[in-house]
Amino acid sequence: MRDFGARSGDDIHMIYTGGTTGMPKGVMWRQEDIFYSLCGGIDAYTNEKVQRPEELSEKCAAGAGPIVFFPIAPLMHGAGQVSTIRGFIHGDTTVLVRKFDADEAWKLVDRERVNVLGITGDAMARPLADSLQESISNYDLTSLFSIGSSAAIFSQSIKEQIMALLPNLLVVDSVGATETGMNGIKIAVPGEETQGGPATVKASRDSIVIDDDYNEVVPGSGDVGRIARTGNIPLGYYKDPERTALVFPVVNGRRYSVPGDFAKVEEDGQITLLGRGSIMINTGGEKVYPEEVEGALKAHPAVFDCLVVGVPDQRWGEAVAAVVQFRPGTSATLEELAAHCRDHVAGYKIPKRLYLTDAIVRAPSGKPDYPWAKQFAIKAGESEKA
Q1: Residue 266: inside a domain
Q2: pLDDT tops 50 at residue 195
Q3: How large is the C-alpha radius of gyration of the chain?
Q4: Domain range for residue 19?
């Protein structure tokens, strides 16, 4: 056995996050904290902490044994990185690819007898679902028992498509942030959620929703607050004390991580995620969270991918605009998309403007590039007026 020397839970593991708006930021985690928050130290289903890391491998050995795990998300992204580390702790076999290709991914699931597939939202789920729809008979996917998504919106319409093709598959949606760790988890059930609605998840240990005074939002009140986490959270941002003080405040002796995701608390204590405050649209005084509208749009059969942004408007301050990539050979008008969305979201959330693109710009991890979408929509709007 190699001698690695003394180790400490205080050693730093740093993950860079691009977030939704700006340059990548280094998030500094103590290794003990990231183990509990992201690498399996807290059971995602029971919220119980393990007392020592070896418990994970012992539980695995006592149960079904190690699995074959395929994280499609790139290792530069937190989702792919921490899930791979978790697999190492379990003793899993990990399958890696250099780039994402939906057809090749299914071939690998078949060839390597993959048990669990890890993705980052619709940017990967949509191509996987479409590829499966076209060629499911070409593969033996009996080894696959779960698909898990994190770090980006996973629309119910795409979950439904995958579950219809693989009815015995467990589809898991988890929400969180590099700055907090996992905030909640949801096992998808066919027909349970409205297509286009925001994600509602079981809250993770130490995850709460707070108001502006750092009081917990009352379940069932309908009040909107920000998701916060206490306990095992990062030390802060690398060489950025001002941003650290803003996102990791200490209030009444208690340290929080509050990256800016807005949410409500349902009567049963579950959290309904609304979206990041930095991309929220204020239209006529009403707040619109893009991910909810995007989920509604993606349930339309002509929409392959989309982003929703606010653009300047003389009457409303900001107007809801949809930047849409249609499926090849399909199209829809703004009026048709608006009529479709009306079945899923409130009237003031329905896009008032539609701009078409050949491809939605996303990071390699699948995260949306909202600054690009906003500039694209503004320039397209100016061109229409010219």
Answers
A1: no
A2: no
A3: 21
A4: 12-205
Structure tokens at 58: 């012992």
Structure tokens at 70: 């395929």
Question: Which of 146, 176, 205 finishes a domain?
Answer: 205
Give the tokens for residue 378: 């503004």
Tokens coding 385? 């007026």
Q: How far is CA 126 from CA 100, 160, 305, 313, 357, in A?
A: 12, 11, 8, 32, 17
Q: Which helix (H) or strand (E) holds 82?
A: helix 78-90
Q: What are the b/e assignments for 158-191, b being 16+ CB within 10 Å?
A: bbbbbbeebeebebbbbbbbbbbbbbbbbebeee
Number of H helices, E strands in the chain: 10, 21
- d(CA 369, CA 53) in angstroms, rounded, equals 37
The pTM of this model reads: 0.82
**pLDDT above 70: residue 341:** yes
Residue 301 lies in a domain: yes
Q: Which residue has the higher pLDDT, 20 or 145?
A: 145
**Which domain-ending residue is among 165, 183, 205?**
205
Neighbouring C-beta atoms of residue 276, cutoff 10 Å: 19
What average pLDDT does this structure show over 92-106?
95
Q: CATH number of the domain at 366, please.
A: 3.30.300.30
Bridging pattern class, strands 68-71 and 93-94: parallel
Q: What is the per-residue pLDDT across 61-83, written as a single tens digit (0 to 9) for each?
A: 777 678 999 999 888 888 889 88
**Of all helices (H) and strands (E), which one includes residue 36?**
helix 31-37
pLDDT band at 21 (very low <50, low <70, confident <90, very high): low
